[in-house]
Write a structure and sequence with these properties.
Elements lengths: L1 H19 L9 E14 L2 E6 L3 H5 L4 H11 L4 E5 L13 H13 L4 E5 L20 E2 L2 E2 L1 H16 L7 E3 L27 H15 L5 E7 L6 H7 L8 E4 L14 H10 L5 E3 L7 H13 L5 E6 L1 E2 L6 E3 L8 E3 L1 H10 L7 E7 L4 E7 L5 E8 L5 E7 L4 E10 L7 E2 L8 E4 L3 E9 L9
Parallel strand pairs: 1-18, 2-3, 2-11, 3-4, 4-7, 7-8, 8-9, 9-10, 10-11, 12-13
Antiparallel strand pairs: 1-15, 5-6, 13-14, 15-16, 16-17, 17-22, 18-21, 19-20, 19-22
Helix pairs in contact: 3-4, 5-6, 9-10
Length: 453
């Protein structure tokens, strides 16, 4: 049987190469997928999202415990991203209390969840002209205040630790290449100039200080550029000591068209190719439609070698968050959005420590990725039918003794949302509706001999 699967694998790889050379592919009604857990790719860091801004709407909601259950139990979140608001000059006398509550709500429900603390801006006393919205780092005696900036980060960690909040990861500056007067930002360029500080210099100052003071400091990810166009991530990385970061991180607000997930491919591949031995994280984005967001996650994992993918807002007014919330002083309404269910296809059954393994489809419109658990006893597949026709997909799984299977499916524009639809049929077949996503969870069992092996 294994020889048959290997032959199918080689055949499908050749088919994909041939199909990739054609301009138009018809919507498939039948497809074959080959999975080989022996082909190893990146280790997964997890799937995450942010509780940042509108924090008081969440903590003020009378339904907040149910919201926390949705996020930290039902969704399967691996990493919670919080905003560092230490020493912020705001009307709220205790701006940190929201993040502290989120941290403990998450840890109570899932002790293994990790936390990323990101800074949108240092406090006003470290900013040029004393402004939080826009601007850049202040100078002292003609030099940028890198040491004071590092001290701010050390003091932040002390203040959070005093409230039993210990982040696993930090990002010293969110989107250093983007400024606006709409919310807190702080510009750091790839290289220092007379006008702007250098991100790499700030990174070194913070990392060196934390390494000197902590036996086990939080891991740093960065630079969290706003997008991936024009080689901007590479330009920042060139000026960074990459040994001081756990992962190279970026967002996707440029570098592709939100209505076409495949338009990001060239930039995703360029970064992956430039840093084959560096972890890559995508830590914020929410522009595509829910279905195309799942498609983009696939592209990031498979083509961009991304090991952690974060949706932007876990909770937000309107339909762009994973959970929609109303002003809690006017209504107790909350509800998971379509984004929640599409994100759940990846987050629920793929955890930190899983490894992406070989998976290929004979149709370009049937996307597939596969992930193996650390103990080798669970295999999770995510399949996406980007076409407009119902498709019967046959799975060939090499070197993994299939025992139990479960299928969860979401179909675009319908009420089918991460619905349990049974198990694989005869010949390991499943049905993908037009524009649908399916997660297939395969549990290993005793391997059985078959004639013809």
């Amino acid at each position: 049987m294994r020889r048959k699967i290997v032959a199918l694998w080689l055949c499908l790889v050749l088919t994909v190469l041939v199909v990739g050379c054609t301009r138009v592919e018809p919507d498939p009604t039948e497809a074959k997928v080959a999975v080989d857990p022996g082909v190893k790719h990146q280790e997964i860091g997890g799937f995450g999202g942010a509780l940042a801004f509108y924090e008081n709407w969440v903590t003020g909601s009378q339904e907040k415990e149910k919201i926390y259950d949705l996020l930290f139990v039902d969704l399967g979140l691996d990493i919670l991203r919080l905003r560092n608001v230490y020493d912020y000059p705001v009307d709220d006398p205790d701006p940190m209390r929201h993040g502290v509550e989120f941290y403990h709500a998450a840890k109570t429900r899932n002790p293994g969840i990790k936390v990323l603390l990101s800074s949108w801006s240092p406090p006003d006393y470290l900013k040029k002209d004393g402004i939080m919205r826009g601007g850049t780092l202040k100078k002292d005696g003609g030099a940028f205040m890198y040491p004071k900036y590092a001290e701010y980060w050390r003091a932040s960690l002390v203040a959070y630790a005093d409230r039993e909040v210990v982040p696993d990861y930090i990002s010293i500056q969110n989107e250093p290449d983007f400024v606006t007067d709409g919310w807190e930002t702080c510009r750091f360029d790839a290289q220092e100039s007379s006008a702007y500080p250098g991100y790499g210099k700030a990174l070194k100052e913070v990392a060196d200080l934390l390494d000197a003071e902590y036996p086990d400091p939080p891991l740093i990810i960065g630079p969290e550029c706003a997008g991936i166009s024009g080689g901007r991530v590479q330009s920042y990385a060139k000026e960074m000591d990459l040994s001081q970061v756990h992962a190279l991180a970026y967002h996707l607000y440029n570098g592709g068209d939100q209505d076409n997930p495949d338009s990001y491919l060239s930039n995703l591949r360029a970064i992956a190719s430039a840093y084959p031995n560096v972890r890559i994280w995508q830590t914020e984005f929410d522009w595509p439609t829910p279905f195309k967001n799942a498609w983009l996650i696939h592209n990031c994992l498979v083509e961009g070698n991304v090991s952690a993918y974060f949706y932007w807002a876990l909770v937000w007014p309107g339909e762009k968050g994973l959970v929609e919330i109303s002003n809690p002083w006017q209504s107790a309404y909350y509800s998971p959005t379509d984004y929640f269910y599409y994100f759940q296809h990846y987050a629920k059954h793929i955890d930190s420590g899983y490894r992406r393994v070989g998976a290929v489809s004979d149709s370009g419109k049937i996307k597939v990725s596969a992930f193996l658990s650390p103990n080798g006893e669970k295999l999770t597949l995510v399949l996406i039918n980007t076409g407009g026709a119902r498709c019967e997909v046959t799975l060939g799984i090499s070197g993994f003794p299939v025992n139990k299977t479960e299928i969860y499916r979401t179909t675009d524009g319908t009420q089918e949302k991460f619905a349990a639809v049974g198990s694989l049929g005869s010949g390991n077949m499943l049905v993908l509706n037009p524009r649908s996503v399916a997660t297939v969870v395969v549990t290993a069992g005793p391997e059985q001999d078959e004639e013809g092996d």
